[in-house]
Amino acid sequence: xxxxxxxxxxxxxxxxxxxxxxxxxxxxxxxxxxxxxxxxxxxxxxxxxxxxxxxxxxxxxxxxxxxxxxxxxxxxxxxxxxxxxxxxxxxxxxxxxxxxxxxxxxxxxxxxxxxxxxxxxxxxxxxxxxxxxxxxxxxxxxxxxxxxxxxxxxxxxxxxxxxxxxxxxxxxxxxxxxxxx
Length: 181
Hints:
It is a single chain. The mean pLDDT is 93. The two termini are 31 Å apart. The protein has a two-stranded antiparallel ribbon with strand order 1-2. A two-stranded antiparallel ribbon has the order 3-4. The chain is globular. Helix 2 (16-35) packs parallel to helix 6, helix 4 (63-85) runs parallel beside helix 5 and helix 4 packs antiparallel against helix 6 (153-179). The chain has one domain (2-11, 19-179): dinb family like domain (Four Helix Bundle (Hemerythrin (Met), subunit A)), CATH 1.20.120.450. It has helices at residues 2-13, 16-35, 39-43, 63-85, 109-133, 153-179; strands at residues 46-47, 60-61, 143-145, 149-151. By secondary structure, it is mainly α.
């Protein structure tokens, strides 16, 4: 249903600017959630209940792992968006398994601070790329996503924002675990 109906319809109903603002808002929420967690909470994986958009293999992550995952995915998607907007179909195969983070292990206060700073910087670079480097938002070039099929720059841009929301919800579910809800 997502492949043939939801993604095509929602991405057409959402402007480029709306997707970008959505990405920014979700990124800000993720950062605030992460900043509100202790060092131990940030590095401890928590098994969350199934939520839409999270595959089973990704349900047992720490918040630090979520941030690392987003720092793998978002810059890669930004590159795809820019290339597609230039009329180029990137010669890459999107591999979901290559976006999995490594367990965060023992973080120090300094490494946690560095992780949060890296996340903020990385997401700002992504935001700049999709606002400043995109040439033709309506380019017909496409690249295949393994779950959703061939997507245009506009569809990838919408998916980028939606992906942030999915993982913001994941961090919220982890936080609820610590709050006893």
